[in-house]
Amino acid sequence: MPHLSSAVSSPIPAVVSTPEQAFSLLELPDEALFAGADRLRRAAFGKRVSLCAIINARSGDCGMDCRFCSQSRHNRTPIAAFPLLEPAVLHRRILDLARWPVRHIGIVTSGGALQREELEQVLDVLRQLPEAVRRRVCTSFGRLAPDALQTLAREGVRRFHHNLETSRSFYPRICTTQRWEQRYATAQHVRAAGLSVCTGGLFGLGESWGDRIELAFSLRELGVDSVPINFLHPHPQTPLADRPPLAADEALRIIALFRHILPDTTLRICGGRPETLGDRQADIFRAGANALMTGDYLTTHGCAVEQDCALIAAAGLEVLHP
């Protein structure tokens, strides 16, 4: 296998700027691909690893028909469904996560978009938080209109999350109740409102490498700040329930590919990490990731924050504290 030096001196640049160059990267063996990604990660982020954690603030009964999602009312996955958390409960859960070494505390709600009166309920909770905690809160409220996003920004929210999920080309095979272009437009509105943009995707849906490259360049066009990289954890009684999980090698190559296309962007490894990577979770850093989601996901269990902090320390890296 070629060493990093041979990969860098080849016609393929360390940072790729065209889809054709990205396809050429896939011809590299793991050693060279990961070495380049690791070098780019260290150049942009040093030894720092950023953690985030989320709160499932409204679960299930979503009108979207996303084929992978346990929260869609079109699917029959046995999950706990509940309306928007009571203000006191949400307030307490935010403060509980604020004790963790996480830079971002995400409030996530199911559904196409959070309604205005529900948005006001959440904002009332945020106004009661200490400033040091409030600045760590980010929100994931679906396809909010520009004026609602501007309201969030005025109230001190700094980041909004809204995934593209997959490429424009593949998206119609995953969801028919929303167009990919609507997702893209929401991310644009987030940026226009002055919010940090957290936008990524889900892998293992049956998409091709071409779809993955297309998604990476769409994120590059948007100029996103943080890219959540999720791997399909097939949920029972969804249309994708029988899809085999991605192999760890393939998942790691996805991370490395995205690092070469998005050299200065935070790559945050999120859902499906334990199931897909197993005992190779520490390799995400070698593949170019500089952030991860800790704790539980929306409807599945994740890794304890103590476990993830130990994983980071064992890799010779440091948790970036709030």
Can you tell me about this structure?
The chain is of the alpha/beta class. The protein has one domain: Alpha-Beta Barrel (TIM Barrel), CATH 3.20.20. The chain has helices spanning 4-9, 19-25, 30-45, 87-98, 116-127, 131-134, 146-154, 180-192, 209-222, 248-261, 273-277, 283-286, 305-314; strands at 48-58, 104-109, 137-140, 159-161, 196-198, 201-203, 226-231, 266-269, 291-293, 318-319. Strands 1, 2, 3, 4, 5, 6, 7, 8, 9 and 10 form a 10-stranded parallel beta sheet that branches. Helix 8 links the parallel strand 4 (159-161) and strand 5. The longest helix has 16 residues, at 30-45. The radius of gyration is 19 Å and the shape is globular. The chain starts with a helix and ends with a strand. The relative contact order is 0.16.
What is the level-2 CATH architecture name? Alpha-Beta Barrel
Q: What Rg, in angstroms, do the CA atoms define?
A: 19 Å
The CATH class:
Alpha Beta
Residues in β-strands, percent = 5-15%
**Helix and strand succession?**
HHHEHEHHEHEHEEHEHEHHEHE
User: Can you tell me the number of structural domains?
Assistant: 1
The assigned structural class equals alpha/beta
Mean pLDDT: 90
